[in-house]
Specification:
The chain is mostly helical and about 80 residues long. The chain has a single domain (about 5-80), classed as Non-ribosomal Peptide Synthetase Peptidyl Carrier Protein, Chain A (Orthogonal Bundle), CATH 1.10.1200. The chain has 4 helices and no strands. It has helices at about 5-20, 45-55, 65, 70-80. The longest helix has 16 residues, at about 5-20. It starts with 6 loop residues before the first helix and ends with a helix.
Length: about 80
């Protein structure tokens, strides 16, 4: 994956993963949705999501970076910086 991907494309892929793998309601997946409070993801879900995003980007997200993530927008920005 290269910088040709926009934040919008990353967001679309993230929503696709959250809906298909975590069975979340697409209408709840806004940029400011909190991954843990609003979407009820737990630490195991976060690890699963990190693995799926690693497959999408072919890049490893550091655990320190992933611990800083709170919202969907945080995930998008983290992936965008990574690629």
């Amino acid at each position: 994956m290269d910088k040709k991907h926009t934040k919008e494309e990353i967001y679309s892929k993230l929503v696709e993963i959250l809906v298909s793998d975590f069975e979340l309601d697409k209408s709840k997946l806004t940029l400011d949705a909190n991954m843990y409070e609003d979407l009820d993801l737990d630490s195991i879900d976060a690890v699963d999501l990190a693995v799926r995003l690693q497959q999408f980007t072919d890049k490893k997200i550091s655990p320190e970076e992933f611990k800083q993530i709170r919202t969907i927008e945080d995930v998008v920005n983290c992936i965008y910086k990574l690629i």
